[in-house]
Backbone:
């Protein structure tokens, strides 16, 4: 068990080093970092000074090491566009993205799993067919279109919720939250719904497929033959055994919530990290681009690790080895 | 002549055709798919107006609702957009771009993924290991993020002004690179199984060159997973292209795809001009939906375990 976890941690570190290498290459070899940092009026001496400050005259391997150690200390450099510290910018925007992802992740799990279980257990029922049609629509409608649809319906026609930005904020230290006021919730509900629909669809489909597979196995038939009540067969034998792959998928899906939040944040003008990333691509703001890449990489690695730990709790076979 | 006859009979007799005939939903979605593809191929002849001919555009005819006629007596079935372009015509041309980019990106992903997958399975050893680790790492990042990143990197290399001219190729590259992993994995898995079979070993003993074994013997036998993934990948590629264009980093306004049209319409949604967004949006959904349905059906029909 411990060996298994250690192995996974080492793997995670390797992945992070690779991601950092990609980020480093983007930073170092795309355009001249010095020219991007100083104005056009800078003299050669000033440029030389910055070049030495960045350590650009050292060997590439040394530069990479320095890059990694800077990141480990939370130093991501300065944005080319706003001339402010990247880490400060990210700190300011982190709560917005994490709250949005968290709410929509919870929504998609709480709605998706029951829908998947129901349509697996009652494949012929009317409601299951609706779920199936709905899930097909869910994967066929792009996230940004869902967002526009919700804006038109709930903001333009009905006027119930605001469509742009984040409001009703409460400050808790450096963390700003919109979850403590009614106004805050009215701002977060539409983007969270938009973000959750695609994930919810995938979760429903996976749970359904997995559960149908499990319900076909011999031990389920045996449990039925033993005369166990349906509920016990379905939940204790069926659901429990279909959960293992479902957890992996959900874990990875939650990771892609962060990626899809790029789209949702753009549609709803939500001041999070995704919006920052899109702006950085638009203005070729390379330090912000590579910092975001590292953030997403770290997020995925940590998520994968948590999934592995959850595995060990659910699947006793892993605990023995 | 006889050979063709046998082929036709074999096709009508096949399980695939049988399951096709039995499902009305699949017949509808295949028809819809063909219709959309044909109407985008023949867009220049079908479109009532040429939306890129600037001499016919006038701002007086901008933002007209569906079924309206402007002062000069021109009729607009689906209304006009902010530049006075006929929406039906922009959709036909936009779908052409969307489908073209989607198909080209998937072809690129198939060629790249299949050759790397075959190579990995056939050579084994460190090359196989390296390729599959790269695939694993990339797979843990969502396709849209990879596509965004490739796009951003190319933009940094080329600069904004040149970007517009090559936007379509950059998109194909970015989307193709974000989707090759699935093909590589499926092909590798299937090829590893096929490799052990006697006909491959027989070919090897007979001294058939490796490249020939890969292309003539292995490739045809791993083609059904490729077909299934390709159909679903087209849907994903069309969505990815639309998303990138919607975010403003895909097709430029001078050469719009469905995503670009929706982006433009989004700005007018708040003032109630819904048709600029709605019609390109519904076209996009129908396009993606028909490919998804076909892909689902192909997967079930070609899966021997379900029979």
Residues:
């Amino acid at each position: 068990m411990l060996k298994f976890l250690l192995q996974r941690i080492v793997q995670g570190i390797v992945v992070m080093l690779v991601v950092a290498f990609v980020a480093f290459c983007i930073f170092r070899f795309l355009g001249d970092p010095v020219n991007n940092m100083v104005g056009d009026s800078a003299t050669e001496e000033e440029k030389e000074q910055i070049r030495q400050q960045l350590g650009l005259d050292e060997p590439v391997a040394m530069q990479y090491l320095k890059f990694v150690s800077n990141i480990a200390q939370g130093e991501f450099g300065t944005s080319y566009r706003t001339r402010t510290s990247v880490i400060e910018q990210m700190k300011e925007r982190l709560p917005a993205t994490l709250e949005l992802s968290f709410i929509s992740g919870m929504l998609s799990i709480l709605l998706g799993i029951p829908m998947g279980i129901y349509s697996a257990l009652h494949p012929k029922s009317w409601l299951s067919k609706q779920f199936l049609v709905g899930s097909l629509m869910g994967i066929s409608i792009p996230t940004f279109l869902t967002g526009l649809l919700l804006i038109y319906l709930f903001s333009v026609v009905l006027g119930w919720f605001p469509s742009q930005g984040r409001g009703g904020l409460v400050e808790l230290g450096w963390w700003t939250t919109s979850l403590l006021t009614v106004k805050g919730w009215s701002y977060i509900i539409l983007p969270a719904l938009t973000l959750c629909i695609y994930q919810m669809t995938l979760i429903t489909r996976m749970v359904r497929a997995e559960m149908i597979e499990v319900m076909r196995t011999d031990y389920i038939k045996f449990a039925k033959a033993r005369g166990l009540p349906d509920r016990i067969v379905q939940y204790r034998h069926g659901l429990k055994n279909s959960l293992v792959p479902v957890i992996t998928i959900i874990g990875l899906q939650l990771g892609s919530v962060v990626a899809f939040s790029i789209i949702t944040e753009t549609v709803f003008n939500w001041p999070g990290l995704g919006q920052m990333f899109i702006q950085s691509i638009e203005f070729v703001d390379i330090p912000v681009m590579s910092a975001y890449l590292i953030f997403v990489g770290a997020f995925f690695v940590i998520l994968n690790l948590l999934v592995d730990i959850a595995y060990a709790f659910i699947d006793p076979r892993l605990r023995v080895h | 002549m006889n050979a063709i006859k046998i082929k036709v009979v074999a096709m009508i007799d096949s399980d695939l055709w049988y399951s096709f005939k039995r499902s009305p939903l699949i017949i509808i979605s295949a028809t819809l798919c063909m219709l959309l593809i044909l109407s985008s191929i023949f867009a220049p002849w079908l479109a009532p107006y040429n939306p890129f001919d600037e001499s016919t555009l006038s701002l007086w005819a901008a933002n007209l609702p569906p079924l309206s006629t402007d002062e000069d007596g021109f009729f607009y079935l689906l209304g006009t957009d902010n530049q006075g372009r006929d929406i039906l015509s922009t959709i036909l041309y936009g779908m052409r771009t969307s489908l073209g980019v989607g198909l080209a990106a998937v072809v690129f992903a198939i060629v790249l993924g299949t050759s790397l997958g075959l190579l990995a399975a056939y050579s084994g050893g460190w090359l196989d290991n390296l390729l599959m680790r790269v695939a694993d790492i990339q797979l843990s990042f969502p396709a849209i993020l990879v596509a965004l990143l490739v796009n951003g990197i190319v933009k940094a290399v080329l600069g904004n002004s040149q970007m517009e001219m090559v936007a379509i190729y950059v998109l194909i590259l970015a989307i193709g690179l974000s989707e090759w992993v699935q093909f590589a994995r499926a092909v590798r898995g299937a090829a590893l199984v096929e490799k052990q079979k006697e006909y491959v070993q027989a070919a090897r003993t007979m001294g058939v060159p490796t490249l020939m074994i890969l292309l003539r013997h292995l490739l045809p036998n791993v083609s059904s997973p490729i077909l299934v993934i390709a159909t679903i990948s087209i849907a994903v590629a069309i969505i990815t292209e639309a998303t990138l264009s919607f975010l403003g980093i895909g097709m430029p306004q001078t050469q719009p795809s469905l995503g670009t049209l929706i982006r433009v319409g989004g700005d007018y949604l708040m003032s109630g001009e819904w048709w600029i967004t709605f019609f390109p949006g519904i076209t996009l959904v129908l396009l993606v939906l028909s490919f998804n349905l076909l892909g689902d059906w192909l997967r079930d029909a070609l899966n021997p375990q379900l029979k």
About this structure: The mean pLDDT of chain B is 80. Chain B has 13 helices and two strands. The CA atoms of residues 118 and 215 of chain B lie 9 Å apart. The interface with chain A takes residues 137, 140-142, 144-145, 148-149, 151-153, 155-157, 160, 235, 239, 242-243, 246-249, 262, 266, 269-270, 272, 274, 277, 281, 284-285, 288-289, 292-293, 296 of chain B (CB under 8 Å).
